[in-house]
Give the backbone structure.
Amino acid sequence: MKKILFIFFLLSAFVVSESYAQDPVVIKQEGATGDLDSEEEPDVKDLTFRERLKFGGGIGGLQFGNPTVISVSPMAGYLLTNNSTIGLAVDYQYTKYRNYDATNLYGPRIFAQYRLRPLESILSKAFAQAEVQQYYGSAGGYSFSYDPQFLAGIGIGYGGFQLTALYNLSYNQATSPYGSPLVLRIGGFFF
């Protein structure tokens, strides 16, 4: 009986506190346009060149021990339209196995993203992505390069974060820097 009374008391207190809650006060900044509750995004045609630039990157493949793997990828993008972005990234990966020379893998990749608005009711900020990349490497005093890689896939974003699943269309185990044709990336545009 004490439990039922306690639960009734908590529910009553919640209902009473909600009835005394005030609506938020919204102060509109001088020169501001549009409704603050509006979810309509501005047309990128109205943005300056600087406002259309986006910067970010990703960190991946972090592993310590045998092997040690560290991968970083700064990137910059440019909003062409409200739905499309083009960009450039530079990937770097350090891999070191115990008793072997370290391997450094680096190279540029050019990408394009197109927002898939019909899927956004299911997936938040869904987009299609295609990219071309060229990787170079060095290990033990030797230099090498991989064939250009062509990847395509889909991704989802939340805030600035993005999770992208790509398929390497030109995958060949002997001439690809990846161990599989499926490539997953975590990163995004943060500035």
Remarks:
- Residues 2-19 form the longest helix (18 residues).
- Strands lie at 53-63, 68-79, 84-96, 103-115, 127-133, 136-139, 142-145, 149-158, 161-168, 182-189.
